[in-house]
């Protein structure tokens, strides 16, 4: 089934949709982008071109012009969807918007077309139930920007066809992404649940005065995050005790259970707490510098992706 | 005070103690190592030499022989401690062991000597209360191996002198580590609480059948961990919404609070659960390959440290 996927439709041409376009086009697939907003349509190829030049500078794309040539922008949803083997829906994350767009895609999609939603938290069952082709809808959740961070969470709805899931898994692997399968729907999927667990602890430690946001950030960026950038949490602990994960879990499990038991009455992030974190962050990075820092982040991610590629080729 | 720290005593010459020796000696300080175990004493300089050669290969140390020359090994605790300006205690993580060793250090330390414990979870108040010089004891918790992962959690006991904390903070910065201040003692400090929060969620998702350990690992190592390897969790979310952290927290706070509320009855990692994770890990990496994979991890961390250094110098 995956071998048949040659043509990609992108619905929604914001940051996520442009990143997806790069992912598919640099792998040699034809990409057709639709967005209802004319201003976005006008700008999207420029954004993609900038992204491709950054990839070229890092040695991650050889011929940006050839990649760009495989991408076209259309002003009708049907033109992006009807000829597509796979559609990546990347519209605004609100259930009514996702429902409306899914129904529109459903009406014009081909008899074998598969649709993945970039939804970062809303499960496909919440917005595809009424689709005639709902067995070929699922969530394919990327991290932003998808052309620099390769993980994709594939989350089928209860009615999603297993063959369609396997096809998207093969497609994502084929284009160089790293698919993970979330076997059943759950709030936040895997990625945002893991992020949320760490964030909730970070906000609580800040709120209780144990450390500054800057020091909590350093604990991750000069500590935990280094290992986690090439090994997951299970492999990390597996290597961190002489007898492997069993040894580690038996020795440290009680500590971690104690930590969990200290957090059984979670508070929401209050307005005062948000104001305190915001004050520290804005002192470190004024609001007017946020956009520049995002460019720095993406440039860093690009160089990190090139580093990772060298490591994996050197294996 | 920190300017006076020239001479370092290391008590306990396992992996952590050897890593610390590299940290201090490569920064130009004199290091004297004590371990009560003769077999460990005999091997430690060989381990350090291997570590230094790996650093040299990555361009992180210019003259390994000169660094090695600054390190000596002694067979009496007093010989490592009595002339030291700062002592890094890195003995086995058990409160009775730490208490006995702290009292032994206390008896022979100089009138200005400061002692940091490598304890990863036991607070200094649990093992230094009876020390005459307890105002100059604290936790200085590294990540293993300290010469490749720079974060150090400084955790004062209630009786630790603020000047001593400031001196260790300056020392750690001076030798190229990244100190973070944990303002009050708490179980697991910051690093292992953040790791534990993510691990607890990871184990629960595995237990409930949402994903394999391998897929949970990929979600971090090809997703979350990439950004966290150069930005902490607060900076990550600050850059991940148009209006910064306030915007992000207001929009996604309820999702993360919902995730926290779904985990208010934490289960310990049961023997069956540990067996299931172990089975998956041992199928992916047989027990006999654990040691080789640890070497791979350290080699990767070395290259990643060199990459990070290039990025920070390029800023």
TrEMBL record, chains A, B:
Annotated family: Belongs to the 3-hydroxyacyl-CoA dehydrogenase family.
GO molecular function: L-gulonate 3-dehydrogenase activity; NAD+ binding
InterPro entries: 3-OHacyl-CoA_DH_CS, 3-OHacyl-CoA_DH_NAD-bd, 3HC_DH_C, 6-PGluconate_DH-like_C_sf, 6PGD_dom2, NAD(P)-bd_dom_sf
Pfam families on file: 3HCDH, 3HCDH_N
Domain of life: Bacteria
Protein name per UniProt: 3-hydroxyacyl-CoA dehydrogenase
Domain 3-hydroxyacyl-CoA dehydrogenase C-terminal: 188-254
NCBIfam families according to UniProt: PRK06129.1 (NF004783)
Biological processes, Gene Ontology terms: fatty acid metabolic process
Alphabetical UniProt keywords: Oxidoreductase
Sequence ranges assigned to domain 3-hydroxyacyl-CoA dehydrogenase NAD binding in this UniProt record: 8-184
Residue stretches spanning the membrane: none
Species the sequence originates in: Metarhizobium album
């Amino acid at each position: 089934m995956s071998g048949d996927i040659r043509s990609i439709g992108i619905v929604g041409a914001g940051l996520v949709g442009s990143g997806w376009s790069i992912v598919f086009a640099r792998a040699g697939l034809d990409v057709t982008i639709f967005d209802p907003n004319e201003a976005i349509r006008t700008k999207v190829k420029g954004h993609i071109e900038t992204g491709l030049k950054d990839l070229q500078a890092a040695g991650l794309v050889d011929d940006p012009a050839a990649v760009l040539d495989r991408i076209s922008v259309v002003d009708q949803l049907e033109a992006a969807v009807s000829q597509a083997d796979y559609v990546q829906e990347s519209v605004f994350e609100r259930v009514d918007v996702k429902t409306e767009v899914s129904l529109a895609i459903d009406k014009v999609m081909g008899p074998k077309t598969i649709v993945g939603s970039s939804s970062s938290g809303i499960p496909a069952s919440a917005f595809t139930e009424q689709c005639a082709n709902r067995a070929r809808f699922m969530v394919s959740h990327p991290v932003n920007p998808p052309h620099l961070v390769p993980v994709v969470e594939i989350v089928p709805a209860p009615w999603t066809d297993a063959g369609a899931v396997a096809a998207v898994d093969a497609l994502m692997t084929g284009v160089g992404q790293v698919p993970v399968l979330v076997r059943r729907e759950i709030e936040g999927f895997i990625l945002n649940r893991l992020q949320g667990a760490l964030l909730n602890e970070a906000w609580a430690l800040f709120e209780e005065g144990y450390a500054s946001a800057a020091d909590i950030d350093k604990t991750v960026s000069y500590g935990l995050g280094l290992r986690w950038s090439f090994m997951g949490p299970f492999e990390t602990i597996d290597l961190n005790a002489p007898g492997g994960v069993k040894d580690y879990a038996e020795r440290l499990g009680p500590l971690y259970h104690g930590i969990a038991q200290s957090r059984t009455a979670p508070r929401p992030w209050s307005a005062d707490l948000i104001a305190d974190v915001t004050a520290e962050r804005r002192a470190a990075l004024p609001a007017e510098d946020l956009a520049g820092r995002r460019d720095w982040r993406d440039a860093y991610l690009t160089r990190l992706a090139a580093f990772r590629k060298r490591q994996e080729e050197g294996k």
